[in-house]
User: Which sequence fits this backbone?
């Protein structure tokens, strides 16, 4: 095989490689542009997050010492507010809410309490449309590790949905149109078309290596072309 024939074969191989990579590279560019363009704080709804109620020990009729004595194996005990009411959040194998006023254990957050929590984390003009209990088979936008939760949906312009833990009273996840689009782009960006969480998948690794080889080959071919032009 002559040098010219070998040169032409390598160019054709490089062109074919770039044709194969054209679609994933285009997807990477479009999805990456969306990530850069969108404000992550807006996506997460940071500007809507509830400001914690200011509390002090004088307001708490049930002392922390009793909670610690009753739960000596707790990994963590913190003072939180749920629906503007103070609770001790005890973390063991599962979250446990203890009323900081009377010491009663809250077995599970009610639908009304979940709605109050969700509304406190949304604009005042957003109206709740549905409050749904989810204890199994979560929707694709919610990780199963957060179950059980209350799904609180709103009628705002971006169809916001907040997921409030039945056990801790926390907003464990929120979704709206822009975040759902973010999730959709993320799946394509990391090439995990199942649940969009595995960034170490074989398809992404193979495509990335293939892309690096194609780019380096293109640089090498261009240098060779410049060298040939000077001869």
Assistant:
């Amino acid at each position: 095989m002559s040098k010219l024939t070998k040169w032409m074969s390598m160019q054709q191989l490089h062109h074919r490689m770039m044709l194969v990579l054209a679609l994933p590279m285009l997807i990477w560019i479009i999805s990456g542009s969306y990530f850069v363009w969108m404000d992550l704080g807006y996506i997460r709804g940071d500007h809507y997050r509830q400001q914690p109620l200011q509390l002090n020990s004088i307001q708490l009729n049930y002392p922390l010492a009793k909670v610690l004595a009753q739960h000596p194996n707790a990994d963590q005990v913190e003072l939180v507010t749920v629906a503007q009411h103070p609770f001790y959040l005890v973390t063991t194998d599962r979250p446990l809410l203890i009323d900081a006023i009377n010491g009663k254990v809250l077995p599970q957050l009610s639908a009304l309490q979940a709605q109050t929590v969700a509304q406190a984390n949304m604009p005042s003009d957003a109206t709740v449309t549905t409050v749904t209990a989810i204890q199994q088979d979560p929707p694709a936008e919610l990780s199963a590790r957060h179950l059980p939760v209350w799904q609180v949906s709103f009628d705002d312009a971006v169809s916001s949905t907040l997921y409030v833990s039945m056990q801790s009273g926390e907003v464990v996840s929120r979704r709206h149109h822009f975040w759902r689009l973010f999730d959709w782009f993320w799946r394509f960006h990391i090439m995990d078309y199942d649940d969009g969480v595995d960034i170490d998948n074989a398809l992404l690794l193979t495509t990335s290596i293939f892309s690096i080889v194609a780019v380096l080959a293109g640089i090498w071919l261009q240098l060779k072309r410049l060298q040939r032009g000077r001869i």
In short: The longest strand covers residues 76-82. The chain has a mean pLDDT of 82.
